[in-house]
Amino acid sequence: MKNNRSIIKTGASLLAALSVFLLAACATPPELAGSAPATLKETPDYVIGPRDELKVFVWQNPDLSVTVPVRPDGKVSTPLIGDVVAAQKTPEELGKEIAQKLTAYIVDPVVTVSVTRFAGPYSRQVRIVGQAVEPMAIAFNDRMTLLDAMIAVGGITEFAAGNRSIIVRKENGQEKSYRIRLDDLLLDGDVSANVPLLPGDIIIIPESWF
Known about the structure:
Elements: H1 2-27, E1 53-58, E2 66-69, E3 75-78, E4 82-85, H2 91-102, E5 111-117, E6 125-130, E7 136-139, H3 146-152, E8 165-171, E9 174-180, H4 182-187, E10 202-205
Parallel strand pairs: 6-10
Antiparallel strand pairs: 1-2, 1-5, 3-4, 6-7, 8-9, 8-10
């Protein structure tokens, strides 16, 4: 009888331990694998966002040519025409709009808008939060990888739990989490831990428990 009770208790303990393990496994997001950079089906034209810096060049009119920041409200201020909404437009679209407004003051204006400092709209940014040396939002570039983002923020702090970091990504309207291995990538040089990023990714780097 004692042996049977011991076997039952042992079996119950193993079952309980297995249940805890399965629950923990379900709570752990899957690893985002693959070292090849992401390839977008079509690279869209750059869209201006708040905190970008723009150079507005008006041909043969140096007094109207300016370098201006895009304000948090998405507007820029230019000579003669004042405030213009720049956010959510391509540089080409903004140049055509400024040229159209300038026709009230000069004949056949030719306007070129170029981006001298990139931030991009929020939907085209990658945000790095937590135990990064310099947590920040950076503009997404085509074929950007995890290593590119880590270089931009100066790596991780000594308190970071790099291999418990995750990427939060929106897929088909739903947010999904994927585990990434920053310790393996940055400390051990494991290139298999370098994964492709997509616009809108959020990289969360937790603090080590001890």
